Amino acid sequence: MLHPRPHEHLEREPLLQLRGVSCGYGGRAALRDVDLQIMRGDWVGLLGPSGSGKSTLLRCILGAVDVYRGDVLFQGRPIAAARPRIGYVPQLETIDWQFPVTVEQVVMMGRTAEARWLPWFSGADRKLAHGLMDRLGILRLARRHIRELSGGEQQRAFLARALVSGPKLLLLDEPTAGLDITTRDEILHLLDELNHQDVTILMTTHEINAVAAHLPWVVCVNGRVLAEGTPSQVFTPEILKLVYGGDIPVTTYQGMTLVAEQPHHFGRNGADV
Amino acid sequence: MFEPFQYEFFVRGLAAATLVGGLCGLIGVYIVLRRMAYIGHGLSHAVFGGAVASYVMSINFYIGASVWGFLSALLINMATRKRKIGADAAIGIVTTASFAVGIALISRYKTFTRSFDAALFGNILGVSQGDLVAIIAVSAAVAAMLFVGYKYLLFTTFEPEVAGFYGVPTGWVDTAFALVLAATIVVSMQVLGVTLIASAIVIPPVAARLLTNDFGVMVALSTILGAFCGLGGIYLSYFIDVSSGATVVLFSAVVFLAAFAYNTVRERFLSEGASGRWLGRAPGSQ
To answer: What are the chain B neighbours of A148 within 8 Å (beta carbons)?
Structure first.
């Protein structure tokens, strides 16, 4: 289990605030009436089934979807005007792994918007990137092609790119998807460490026990925000039924609230229940 | 061996083919990596429409065709941004329509005195001093723009949407790229012709990709290979007495085959373990 710190808010003003936001694509709202506050230092997980609007919510913050109603504010200002530095880590499955880039080139992309008129990066930028890569344990892989890395190393490379941009908010889209148990644990501990170093994190996940149960704060989404709170507050059969549309039993293990899948024939070698 | 160099037209053609080859190789990297290989072929056809239109309207060929090509490239970009239309379909629609405009103008104004054979199939020996100056100017401008925009182009080519999230002005980058692409196609038409430009844009970067995993190295390698194919193809065409454009393309195909064979052998050595260590890691292999 990680060490989720209490949801303490050092500042009164939210870092990010969504007020009555409805957003989507091509005139069709994928999310409706979203009210959400992210305070500085938060680590929030967006949980919901596939197609529930988790990634759309991240893309709404990034300005990549149409907002039909409501306001997206960053430190009290409309986000489009505030233009904050946001580090975004996409789902690894969206990456073109055949693209000829090395780990260092990927990480340096996070500094692209700096030194606009120079085709190369400054020594200070490189030093910053190398420091981060060292911190995330991938400096030795700097010259390697991105496809030659393990899943965990690839995730670290894209995390380093996000961090090197000096973000005020880190958005991660399914950062543990497709990773094995050990690597997933490594990534979660790394994010926990970053969060304790004052990095505000908002991430999506569809893994309830493996990921969401370890987070300090969880927001349940399915077309709209259905519930939010600590895992023990939101992991109730009633809320989970609302989110997933089915009966999901809840249990407790070593102080952690976990969900238990209902027994069914599949996976029992056809034996009668 | 040095016999062809006594002819001024040959030297001019050789210089033009080398520059155009390098230019197409350079810009081709971004096109191939964006998975828009067909755009070279399509846009050259679109520019043909512009060439005919500029002739009919008595506008300078370079200006008319460049503006036409630029607008076509922008239209393709706009259509591609619509999620429902893929890049390949957008290229197919815009460029064939544009090419059809050229054909329609030719059939409408049958009093044409100018032959468009050179535009279609290339005529390296017909490269004038003015054409060479235009090629040099465009090559210098394109190289300068791609050099200055290197960081932006790399990120935009790798992850177009994410680049925007990180503050890269992707709309401007795409517009600037459409401009340099159109200019490249226009100056390349005289040398390679509408029908053969695609090979100069696609083959060098694909061959370079087989040889490296590093973007910067790929850009340099593709430019060098493109220039080499242009130079080698024209030089060879003099001796074998075959159309210059066709020889450049066939020479490029041989270079690609060599790169492919090298990559295959290297992969095989690597898969056999320690014996392949000295060869390094094969691009595209894990």
So the answer is: 281, 286
Question: What is the 3 state secondary structure string of A40-84?
Answer: CCCEEEEECCCCCCHHHHHHHHCCCCEEEEEEEEECCEEHHHHCC
Average pLDDT, rounded, for chain A? 87
- Taking an 8 Å cut-off on Cβ atoms, the answer to whether A109 and B83 are in contact is no
Residue B281 pLDDT class (50, 70, 90 cuts) = low
Instruction: Give a yes or no: residue A51 inside a domain.
Output: yes
Shared-domain flag, residues A71 and A115:
no
Question: Given this model, what pLDDT does residue A1 score?
Answer: 47
* Contact state of A117 with B148 under an 8 Å Cβ cutoff: yes
**Cβ within 8 Å, pair B286-A99:** no
User: Residue B208 belongs to a domain with what CATH number?
Assistant: 1.10.3470.10
A23 and A158 in a single domain? The answer is no
Q: Name chain B contacts of A86, Cβ cutoff 8 Å.
A: 165
B85 touches chain A (CB under 8 A): no
The answer, yes or no, to whether residue B82 has pLDDT greater than 70, is no
Domains identified in chain B, total number: 1
Residue A193 lies in a domain: no
* Total domains present in chain A: 2
Half-sphere exposure of residue A235, counting CA atoms within 13 Å on the CB side?
25
Could you give the ipTM of this predicted complex?
Answer: 0.86
